[in-house]
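Researcher: We plan to redesign the surface later, but first we want a full-length starting point. Tokens attached.
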């Protein structure tokens, strides 16, 4: 079978790009001819060249006429359909976040696939008939993940592993759980700007991994315990008991059912009751059921069904025009939403710039006022120090004069037999005659100074 796979790019290592690589390799190993059409290429495309799989920038550059188009991302899928007007297609949806992932409608797209039940429901919400949709399990190339760790008695080291864009992630719950359970937490992925190039080497170093989708499957294949996450909210540990429900939701969280988010207290309680014997068997099942060759075999059966349905379909190129018109109108609506959102963001950025400039001006004004106040304080300190020395000198003189008066009183008079001052008359002290010494007193007696 000759298969043309489309994707947005092969420049980084996002979930869809790495999945295209593993899928193409698995299909090639099954004996099929594969070619990949992408709008943007990068380092990841070099791996395809080493495997002998062509990566092209235009559908017309394909080395063969495909039997079937495996579409991913809407613009590239439609471009391939227009390049091969008599070939059927299926469309694999990777998510619901971007306008590029909105499923295109076209008479020759005979199947729409999703990795989860929630993803399949979203396809229905976009107008795709239910009978044209089905679920395909996500997968990993197990030949890359050859190291499988053994779980400890208690988890000590955890990883938040995010291969998606990381938008809207809130890690508060995860941090709280790890702090309360005395588990060391590390972050890897687009959220923190550290995308791993070799997760098969990194993952076996961790006991517990918080992840979803392909990242969760990679961690489970490495023998790690996994807690599915969605926007930072956590689900239950993946065990043999809940494996089927977790797989049906692509090891992520749904709004209801077995994959519903847990509270922090509930997850802490689950980790405190950690039993590696209930977690370890999951790795074996993951490696058997969700390996790239096993899922590729399922995908080939779907290809065969699409080709069989296409044989009964009457080819009518002119009849495709209304469908393309409807899809372009939908795409225009999507662009309108994107443009509106972009304009709103631009307005918000402009407002934030104005606030920042106003804040900077106010900060400069307050800084100048603060410097002025500091100068006043420094001047006051200098005056205080100078005044303090003067006060000390005056106080010393007054203290000496008072001691001389006290001495004269204790001795019964002065050497010059000055008469006592009249009542109400002030005593004029001769400062030059004051002697600086401490009078003798009886032990325990003290001199009471004024003030």
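Model: Full-length starting sequence:
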């Amino acid at each position: 079978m000759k298969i043309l796979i489309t994707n947005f790019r092969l420049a980084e290592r996002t979930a869809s790009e790495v999945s295209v690589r593993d899928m193409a390799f698995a299909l090639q190993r099954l004996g099929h001819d594969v070619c990949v059409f992408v709008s943007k290429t990068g380092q990841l495309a070099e791996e395809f060249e080493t495997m002998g799989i062509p990566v092209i920038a235009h559908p017309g550059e394909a080395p063969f006429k495909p039997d079937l188009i495996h579409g991913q991302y809407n613009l590239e899928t439609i471009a391939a359909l227009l390049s091969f007007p008599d070939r059927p297609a299926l469309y694999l949806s990777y998510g619901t976040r971007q306008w590029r992932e909105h499923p295109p409608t076209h008479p020759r797209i005979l199947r729409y696939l999703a990795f989860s039940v929630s993803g399949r429901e979203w396809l229905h919400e976009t107008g795709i008939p239910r009978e044209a949709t089905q679920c395909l399990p996500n997968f990993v190339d197990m030949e890359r993940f050859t190291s499988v760790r053994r779980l400890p008695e208690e988890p000590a080291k955890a990883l938040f592993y995010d291969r998606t864009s990381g938008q809207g992630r809130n890690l508060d719950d995860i941090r709280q759980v790890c702090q309360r359970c005395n588990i060391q937490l590390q972050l890897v992925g687009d959220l923190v700007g550290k995308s791993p190039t070799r997760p098969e080497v990194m993952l076996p170093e961790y006991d517990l991994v918080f992840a979803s989708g392909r990242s969760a499957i990679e961690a489970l294949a490495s023998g790690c315990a996994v807690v599915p996450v969605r926007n930072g909210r956590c689900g239950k540990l993946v065990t043999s008991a809940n494996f089927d429900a977790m797989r049906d939701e692509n090891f992520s969280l749904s709004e209801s059912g077995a994959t519903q988010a847990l509270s922090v207290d509930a997850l802490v309680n689950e980790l405190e009751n950690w039993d590696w014997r209930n977690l370890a068997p999951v790795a074996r099942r993951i490696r058997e059921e969700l390996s790239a060759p096993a899922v590729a075999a399922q995908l080939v059966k779907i290809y065969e069904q699409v080709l069989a349905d296409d044989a009964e379909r009457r080819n009518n190129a002119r009849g495709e025009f209304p469908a393309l018109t409807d899809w372009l109108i939908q795409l225009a609506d999507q662009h309108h939403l994107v443009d509106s959102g972009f304009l709103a963001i631009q307005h918000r950025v402009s407002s934030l710039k104005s606030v920042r400039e106003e804040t900077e001006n106010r900060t400069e004004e307050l800084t100048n006022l603060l410097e002025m106040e500091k100068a006043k304080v420094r001047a006051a300190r200098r005056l205080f120090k100078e005044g303090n020395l003067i006060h000390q000198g005056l106080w010393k003189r007054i203290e000496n004069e008072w001691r001389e008066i006290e001495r004269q009183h204790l001795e019964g008079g002065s050497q010059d037999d000055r008469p006592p001052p009249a009542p109400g008359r002030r005593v004029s002290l001769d400062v030059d005659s004051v002697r600086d010494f401490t009078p003798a007193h009886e032990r325990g007696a003290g001199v009471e100074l004024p003030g």
